[in-house]
Design brief:
Elements: E1 9-15, E2 18-26, E3 29-32, H1 33-36, H2 46-50, H3 53-65, E4 75-76, E5 81-83, E6 92-96, H4 100-110, H5 119-136, E7 140-143, E8 149-150, E9 156-157, E10 165-166, E11 169-175, E12 191-198, E13 201-202, H6 218-222, E14 228-229, E15 235-236, E16 247-252, E17 255-261, H7 269-279, E18 287-289, H8 297-300, E19 309-314, E20 318-325
Helix pairs in contact: 4-5
Length: 327
């Protein structure tokens, strides 16, 4: 007889009468691991589970298969505060310019390219450039401070430092097995699971104008407090199916801004892991933000403002909801 496979996710939750706890999520119900098994210490963290992910996933599979979500230990997720699922990640890597249509649209919107081209010619030039890059180029990766991480439903405080706060819905990859110089063929064996992230970006702070040779400034543009809503859940990789064929959708105050698929990535997850681990040792609990599809604020000439409600969804991974507020 085939073993029972129950789809579940992991999260970090809190409520007024209890410190943050690791919760097993089945459907819209949550139970603390410490309430489900004597083998789970009360102060266990998702990061602790990731540090021995091979054993942890067997333990979690077994718990999920035996779960009775009508039992008293289980409660609706809506009565809890949902924190970042890995609270907090060890390292955060972001792969920029990694969706073909997004980069092409940005190129046309900003008008960066050979002089004298019409809008249609510039688009064709950008499309050809992206195809060459996918065939012979490398991912473009930068880091983001852990202090930028916020919960999936936390308010997004729009800082006074920027006049152009923008959204970037992305698929997040959580590392479960660390390694250095990981091969592309073996890369997905290092992935514990997937989550939603939103790489909030201050568009007007990306270029350095005081000394143009410096190029971009990712610290001020993407590293500010709250600039990485993360979650709601870590969904184990064996419950995700094909991570390169997931629908992605982001709305701002009811208007659809991004409605794409992870299939438009230039460099897939395995290639990103191979590239990053060529230079840095990956560790359990690391987060890789894999790039954002077309439909950012720059394309619409519309940026986030106080009162906006931003909702991001990725197929099978849940939903984020952020209210934008003034400082």
């Amino acid at each position: 007889m085939e073993p029972i496979v129950t789809r579940y996710a992991l999260g970090t939750f809190s409520r007024p009468d209890r410190q943050r706890f690791v919760g097993l999520v089945i459907g819209d119900r949550v139970a603390a691991l410490s309430d489900l098994s004597d083998a789970a210490p009360a102060k266990l963290s998702v990061l602790g589970l990731l540090e021995d992910w091979t054993a942890s996933v067997l333990f979690l599979d077994d718990l999920a298969a035996r779960a009775d979500t009508s039992a008293p230990a289980w409660q609706p997720v809506e009565v809890l505060v949902v924190n970042p699922p890995v609270d907090l990640p060890r390292q955060i890597f972001c792969t920029g310019a990694n969706y073909r249509k997004h980069v092409v649209d940005m190129t046309v919107d900003v008008g960066v390219g050979p002089e004298g081209l019409s809008r249609e010619e510039l688009r064709k030039w950008a499309e050809d450039m992206m195809d060459r890059r996918a065939a012979t180029g490398e991912p473009y990766v930068f880091t983001k401070p852990v202090s930028a991480v916020s919960g999936p439903n936390d308010d997004l405080v729009l800082p006074l430092t920027t006049q152009a706060p923008d959204w970037e819905l992305e698929l997040g990859v959580i590392i479960g097995v660390g390694g250095f110089q990981i091969s592309r063929a073996n890369a997905l064996n290092h992935v514990a699971g997937y989550a939603i992230v939103n790489d909030i970006s201050a568009r007007d702070l990306i270029p350095r104008t005081d000394y143009r040779q410096l190029g971009t400034d990712w610290l001020r543009a993407k590293g500010q407090t709250g600039f990485l809503p993360f979650g709601p859940y870590l969904v184990p990789s064996h419950h995700v199916g094909d991570p390169l064929n997931l629908a992605m959708k982001l709305t701002v105050s009811g208007q659809v801004m991004q409605d794409e698929s992870t299939s438009d990535m230039l460099f897939d997850i395995s290639r990103q892991i191979e590239y990053i681990s060529t230079y840095c040792r990956l560790m359990p609990g690391d987060l890789i933000c894999t790039g954002s599809p077309a439909g950012n604020g720059t394309h619409y000439g519309r940026y986030l403002k106080p009162g906006d409600v931003m909702i991001g969804e990725i197929e099978g991974l849940g939903m984020q909801r952020a209210l934008c507020v003034a400082p």
